[in-house]
Protein 1
Amino acid sequence: DQADRSLGYRLLASVLRSRIFAWIMSAMGMNGSRVVGEALAGHSRDHQYSEEIVEAQVRWASEIIGTGGFDVVIANHTHKGGLQPVGDGLFANSGSFGLGGSWLQISKDRLSVISLSGEGHTVEQEWIFKGQPSSTSDAL
């Protein structure tokens, strides 16, 4: 969420990360805090993120990769899953498990965006790291 610089999001994030909110959630117990968490997640699912936020995330990832210290930046927050080359690296967004069921699967030789489909799951996009056996996927 570092790419979302909107005032509304910054205010919400500061409240949700505060000690007071943590204390309230703790005082509400497991069931009460679950209800609040699900309500917040529902609000997040219903919110349509603009392409501006996705583009801001890609710029943010590009800055991090451009420092030379990182090859891959993994984020979410926009609920838009995908793998995107950025400079000499890769920007990976896990998507949203709550919205259609997508997640990022990480192994020693690849990153995969997986989504639920019917009774199983589908590899939507895959990135194989350099030096690994090649396939039809891109290589980093």
Protein 2
Amino acid sequence: MRVTLNQDGVRELLSSSQGPVAREMASLTRQVQNRAKQKVGVDTGRLRSSVTGVVNATGDKVVGTVGSSVQYAGYHHQGTGVYGPRGRPIKARPGRVLVFTPKGASTVVYTKQVQGSKPNPFLLDALREVLVGWTIVENR
């Protein structure tokens, strides 16, 4: 028996923005986006509302991307200070202090250093929950 593949047809199935692969990628991207919005937590709602997903079909690839354009999204996701990638406290510059009002407090705090904030990997957690059973390779 001999099997001959219609390579143009296979390419169309895999890379068309209207094909079944792109439709499935769009569905998965929406699911990850919605789950990430549920997991992000809410302070003002700005970060939650900024989480978006998009699907691009170019060449022989269909890629779904979920993320946020808010400047502090990466800090929220990865953590800061001792909890972040560097693993060190956040320190004021010599001769200065850090000034902030903690969440839920009415008084201002002056300090030389803080521990930082714990990570909330809402995007990665959402991806893992939606793609249960899939192998996820982190590309940092």
Protein 3
Amino acid sequence: MANENVFSNCVINYSKGRPGYAPGVIDLLCTKILKKNTKIADVGSGTGIFAREFLNRGFDVFCVEPNEKMRLEAEREFAGNVHFFSIAAPAEDTTLSSNSIDLITAASAFHWFDTDKFCLECKRILKPDGILFTVANARDYTDEFTCRQHEICKKFCQNFTSLCHGLDKSIPQFERIFGTDVHQQKFDFPLEYTKEKFINRSLSSSYAPPPNTKAQKKYVRELWNLMNTFAPNSDTIIVPNISVVYWGKLV
């Protein structure tokens, strides 16, 4: 399956279950990077979770997303917003004009890209002082709940690697593409879900078992058992998490 089709079967769960990012991430952008007329390309924008932060602040955002169902959900969400521009294109060939963008963002998406082709495209569309900013949520593996969830995912989810949103794959690439200009910061961001929403979040992952299969039913049942073991008298579950950002100018 091509990368752009990975999330086609889980758009509803994605919209219902995916969290945003730590407030400190937005504070960092607002204080150190964003200027009055910053033009942003949010690449691999999905349903617009990260783009919403910029659109709410009046910035022009070009949401580049190849998956039709994800893109249509964002178009529905931001219909009528004059700052929202929907672009049907992959990260490696955005179709945006050369030297037109001040800031490229990739939120929980960088690990899906062909790094070298994406960086060439970034260099083409960014202005001379333009910046690439990446962010992902990563679970805390010192937490017993997270370790137990990891084992459930290993048991039922094909292609599962970790609960770190591809950071284990991405971090070596960041050090290569940013060189000495690499900036990195972590923000504590515990995630609080209703138990239903936690299921939505789990089923929104690319590695989740396919819908309406025995594997998915068993996976969901195990996750419910896990939540009820750790939070037996609550409708909610809180899991330790950090939002990790890397940014800089490309070498």
